[in-house]
UniProtKB/TrEMBL annotation:
InterPro entries assigned: Glutaredoxin, GRX_PICOT-like, Monothiol_GRX, Monothiol_GRX-rel, Thioredoxin-like_sf
Single annotated GO MF: 2 iron, 2 sulfur cluster binding
Glutaredoxin domain: residues covered: 18-82
Protein name, per record: Glutaredoxin
Amino acid sequence: MTPELKEKIDQLVEDNKILVFIKGTKLMPQCGFSNNVVQILNSLGVPFEAVNVLADDEIRQGIKEYSNWQTFPQVYIDGEFIGGSDIMIELYQQGELQQKVEVALAS
Ligand SMILES: N[C@@H](CCC(=O)N[C@@H](CS)C(=O)NCC(=O)O)C(=O)O
Ligand code: FES
């Protein structure tokens, strides 16, 4: 990955307390896995930013290396890589996601 791309991703992660890399947009997710995390975050009613990896192949490939995670969605909360759809569903069901999000938004 180029230093420029790493810097671009660093900036995105830094600027957005809750950031998701998904296929499609918040309003129109293009895959069921991406849709899962969008709906979970919508149901929590928290602000979040979404990057559509289908619209940017450089980011689509680069973020896999950056996160060391090969699939989408990818979720970052407060600069920390959380995981994908399975992990988000699990955290949500355990009530841990609500907690993480509250802590992130309060900081
Ligand atoms: N078990 C994964 C499912 C996600 C998944 O399998 N994503 C695939 C299909 S959308 C993917 O991103 N493949 C890599 C790519 O399309 O670049 C999760 O929990 O997030
Ligand atoms: S785009 Fe086919 S499974 Fe996600």
